[in-house]
Write a structure and sequence with these properties.
single chain; 143 residues; alpha+beta; 5-stranded mixed β-barrel; 4 helices
């Protein structure tokens, strides 16, 4: 054990911190692993154990203090570009087969979709334009 340099132990610690990072997807473990790599560099330069631990703590805390709030802010932001089914909500479609509360067909974004009326008592005839208010599975809900 005494034959192994301190920088190797710090790299082993960094790798050990990488395991829970992958398993739990908690980025804090990655930041601690980067701190351990910084301590390994300091140890490789020949500094003593106190400076190594100090480098580990300073780099880890700095990363957590700076990167974590930025990541949290990005996590709270909604995507600006609607994709998939969300992009179809609010679009106009043309009735291909009569649409009522039980079903029908529309042409939406160049594709034929099954559809039903939001108001079950309302029916839309072939050729009418309708607005898509929601998508439930493969069925567009229209008004």
């Amino acid at each position: 054990m005494n034959d192994i340099s301190a920088w190797v132990w710090w790299l082993v610690g960094a790798a050990a911190l990488g395991i829970p990072l992958v398993v739990t997807a908690m980025p804090e473990f990655g930041m601690l692993a980067v701190g351990a790599v910084a301590a390994a560099v300091v140890a490789g330069l020949g500094f003593d154990a106190v400076i190594q631990v100090l480098a580990f703590v300073v780099v880890s805390v700095a990363l957590i203090a700076v990167v974590r709030p930025i990541a949290a802010r990005h996590d709270r932001q909604r995507p600006r570009l609607a994709t998939g089914v969300d992009a179809l909500k609010g679009k106009q479609a043309v009735v291909m087969e009569r649409v009522d509360g039980t079903g029908g067909r529309i042409k939406l974004a160049g594709e034929i979709w099954s559809a039903r009326s939001l108001d079950t008592g309302r029916a839309y005839e072939v050729g009418q334009e309708v607005d898509v208010v929601d998508i439930e599975g493969a069925t567009a809900i229209v008004i």
